Amino acid sequence: MYTTAFLATILAAVASAAPASNLAARDDTYYGIGLTIKTTDAFTQPPVYEPAPVEINKLTSLGNVSASEIKFDIPTASHVDVNQIECRAYKDAAGVVPGSAPFNAKTPAELSTNLVEIGSVLCYIVTEAEKV
After folding, report:
1. What CATH class has 32-131?
2. Residue 70 vs residues 51, 66, 100, 106: alpha-carbon distances, Å
3. Residue 88, Cβ neighbours under 10 Å: how many?
4. Residue 44: its H or E element
5. How far apart are CA 87 and CA 109, in angstroms?
6. Taking a C-beta distance cutoff of 8 angstroms, is the pair 38, 100 a contact?
7. How far apart are CA 98 and CA 88, in angstroms?
8. pTM for this structure?
9. φ and ψ of 58, to 5 deg
């Protein structure tokens, strides 16, 4: 009898804790950075920049935008340290064909003096060891 009562107490405790643990495991926090995409060539004045919000570790489709430069819009960072973020642009929406070298808050992606097609962007966190 003692074992049955003890087991019932443990099962009841686990059952009551289950909903709380499910809520704790759910994290709806948005981790992202805003980019600005220069949609004019190097010779057009004044230059035109379009905003592009990008979630960290998620390939973001840009819909084949014509661009000459991509840079960080630092004030729009959400729950991330912009100094630990690196991004890369791709010519295609699937993120297969590189369209830029990796870029960060200090070094924008200088794509071309003319406009080039960019289909997607991937931003991710890098550690100090990975930057070396």
Report:
1. mainly beta
2. 10, 11, 9, 12
3. 18
4. none
5. 9
6. no
7. 8
8. 0.74
9. -140, 120
The type of residue at 77 is A
Residue whose tokens read 């991330």: 80
The dihedral sign for the CA sequence 76, 78, 84, 88: negative
Question: In this structure, what token pair is assigned to residue 51?
Answer: 């905003």
Report yes or no: 56 and 80 within 8 Å, Cβ to Cβ: yes
Residue pLDDT tens, the chain, 132 long: 455 454 444 445 444 544 444 445 567 899 999 999 999 998 999 999 999 999 999 999 999 899 999 999 988 889 999 999 999 999 999 999 999 999 999 999 999 999 999 999 999 999 875 554
